[in-house]
Amino acid sequence: MTALDDRPSVDEQPLRGRPGTPPIGTPPVDRPVRASLPNDVAIGALRPVMPQRGIPRLLRRTIGVNEDVLDWVPEERPRYTRLGLIVLNTGLLAAVSMHMALASVLGGHWWLVFADLVWAVIIVTADSWLIASTHGAARTSLLGTYLPRLLLSVLLGVVIAEPLVLAVFHQSIDNEISETRKADIDAYGSAVKRCNPPTGEISTDPSCAGFLVVISERPQSAVEELGRATAHRDQLATRIGEINAQLNELERLARDECAGRGGPGLTAIPGEGPECTRNREKADQFRRDSQVDQLNADLVTADRQVSELTTKVANASSRAEREVNAAINAKIDEKRENLTERGLLDEFEALASLSSKHFSVLMAHVFLALLLVVLDCLPVLSKMMSASTEYDARVRRQLDVSGRLHDLQLRASEKRDSVDFELQELRFRQKLRTGIEEIGGEDRTAKARRRMEVDAQIDRLAATLEKARTPEPR
User: Fold this and answer.
1) pLDDT digits (tens, 9 = 90+) for 411-455
2) Which positions ≥6 away from 217 have C-beta within 8 Å?
3) Residue range 319-354, pLDDT digits in tens
4) Least crowded by CB within 10 Å, which of 80, 125, 241, 250?
């Protein structure tokens, strides 16, 4: 308890000197009370002044001002009232920032007001602690006292400032997000189309991983089957062509021989001679051995199969193209759907993109953010930039007095407790001595009792022996 705490409260102070108030038969206080003067008269007046009520007192209470001490220096009341108002403004700024941040993520719900109030209370509590913990601090400890608090205030300011910056640039940010997402969707669609050709072929490009679509059936199997059938038909056609060439040559020789034309291997004798007959038989035998008729039938079958497979491939390609296009559109729609929602990170990225593209946006972003950070740091900065006040000096002296009084109380308590413990120790020693004496007396008594019993026993034995030695009279 300090001397300031010993003074009577306002209700206990006598209302002496007020016009129209009769003196009350109460004992006078040990110092004059400035009850007859208004509160706004400070210079040269008696101290402490009457306590102040209302909103200014609540604002000062927010930053931990001790009104009992401030009553002695009422000139400091406007300073600390405005400092409390600065802390309250910081809380309101934080509430607005939180509402904008949550509304951009969750939408405009009425229950966001409760979250805004909670955040405002947190910021006001933090700032009020930052101010209250500096009351009574000496100016010599400026760096150690204010620098950690200033760093914490800057950190809180950055957190509070960014949603407000986003709100200021919201139109440009919205446009940037729309343009960026449109470009992303276009690039994604181009990649999906490149990796999924209409033919349904599977791309082997490593960059297509994650862009491939799935369809029910790809035409590759039909295309491969068509290729095999076409190759088989071409082989048959080539073989038939070779056989027909040889057969035509043999038939030409037979015709020329029968017609009597001259030339290599010809007799030039017309008519059905032996050479004519032999050449015809040779051509007929070659036709039978080469099975050209069967090969021609197989070629017709192969042509029909190729035609059917060509139709099948065309149908499969058309179906695959429709499925690929549908799958590509579905994949692009899914990408577009995923980019419908947006959050704070998207807005931060859009603002960063705008800042990197436009120097004016960068400077506006930086200066606006710095302004909002300074506004949030204003409670600590205002306390830091102010000179040491009379209130601080009196709080510091009161703390010193409280510390000394507490030390004296501790020493007095130590002496009091030491006396009690010493007395208790003396009692314990006296009790120990008494107990030792009692034990010694009991031991001596027991020894004396045993000696008496031994002596008595000896006397009885002596009497018995004496009696045994003395003859009995006859």
Assistant:
1) 888 888 888 888 888 888 899 889 898 888 888 888 888 889 888
2) 316, 319, 320
3) 877 878 888 888 888 888 887 777 777 888 888 888
4) 241
Take residue 77 and report the two structure tokens written for it.
């009341």
**Tokens linked to 296:** 């021609």
Cα dihedral 180, 183, 187, 192 sign: positive
Query: What is d(CA 180, CA 167) in angstroms, rounded to the nearest whole number?
Result: 19
- Angle at which helix 220-259 crosses helix 274-290, to 10 degrees, equals 170
Q: What is the pTM of this model?
A: 0.49
| DSSP for 159-181, written as a single string | HHHHHHHHHHTHHHHHHHHHHHH
Is the dihedral angle over the CA atoms 234, 240, 246, 252 positive or is it negative?
Answer: negative
Burial code of 97-108, b = ≥16 C-beta within 10 A, e = fewer?
Answer: bbbbbbebeeee
What is the structure's pLDDT at 471? 66
Q: What percent of the chain is predicted at pLDDT more than 90?
A: 0
Q: What is the overall mean pLDDT for the chain?
A: 77
Amino acid at 258: C
What is the rounded distance in angstroms from the CA atom of residue 38 to the CA atom of residue 27?
24
CB 259 within 8 A of CB 275: no
Domain assignments of the chain as residue spans, ordered by start: 55-168+361-388, 220-338
Q: List the one residue out of 196, 286, 215, 209 whose CA is nearest residue 245.
A: 286
Q: Mind giving me the DSSP string for 294-310?
A: HHHHHHHHHHHHHHHHH
Q: Which one-letter DSSP state was computed for residue 22?
A: P
Percent of the chain with pLDDT over 70: 85
CA angle at residue 237 from 234 to 241, to 5 degrees?
140
Integer CA distances (angstroms), 453 to 339, 456, 457, in order: 114, 5, 6
What six digits make up the tokens of 434?
């008494």
In contact, 299 and 233? CB cutoff 8 Å: yes
Closest CA relative to residue 208, chosen from 221, 181, 190:
190
CB 370 within 8 A of CB 165: no
CA distance linking residue 161 with residue 93, whole number of Å: 9
Cβ–Cβ < 8 Å for 34, 47:
yes
Task: Note the pLDDT of residue 25.
Answer: 41
> Using 50, 70 and 90 to split pLDDT, how confident is the model at 47?
low
